[in-house]
Amino acid sequence: MIYLSNFKLSSQISGNPNIYPDHVFKHISGEVLIFDRITVLYGNNGSGKSTLLNVIANKLGITGSERMTTYGNSAYVQRFLDKSSYELGRDEQEHVIRQLPEGSRYIKSEDILYEIKKIQQANVLREGLLYEQSQQGMSKAETEELAHSYAFKKKLDNIQFSQEKYSNGETSMQFFEEYLLPGQLYLLDEPETSLSPVNQIRLAEQINELARYFDSQFIISTHSPFVLGTLHAKIYNLDRTILQTAEWFELDNVRFFYHFFDKHKRLFDQE
Hints:
This protein is α/β, with parallel strands linked by helices. 45% of the residues lie in helices and 13% in strands. It has two domains: 4-109 and 183-265, 3-Layer(aba) Sandwich (Rossmann fold); 111-163, no CATH class.
């Protein structure tokens, strides 16, 4: 399912190099990104891929979007957002989708690291669990009663005991297994954070399956060769001076890995 069909970047860009996010996108101002079931925003550090994800998340108003400012002034950011536009996709009957699925969200690498930290810190874990209960409708008095109950203490102990056995990467995989659900739009910022190459490929295969069989759509920023080579995705190369798509094996970061291992090929050929 294609929930977000396209996104057009503002064509009104300030010439001031200190204006954010104008200076990040000056080379692709007014361009339109056409999205597939899985779309990748590729680029090295400073390419603007994470900023672009956050711009899209802010314009869509989905969970996880971060406030953007220019030296404390949000007027320039708001102008950029106002001048940007998007179109939603169509359902199976070819009717234009009127709104995004309620569970759609922007998941940043910081969110994943926070989940890991939350597990490692008992107090944060405790407060997080109580906060989740309040978000589900439990009153303040009920949460206080729950906090002092034996059942709650037992739950905390069980979670900490089970999670201490896992590495950061395994905890990250658990995070994605819990939060990536069918029928949603997800914006993922460098989801490979803390993951080994094996788990990066596992996650990419999970994303492929959700997109192909379970009506989820993904827009992902990454420069991981393992994720890029596994995803069945349209790839935008933000390292170029004009907006253009590319095959994963054409990308500089992937080719860097290829040349590195090819340089040491004789070591791998030894018996």
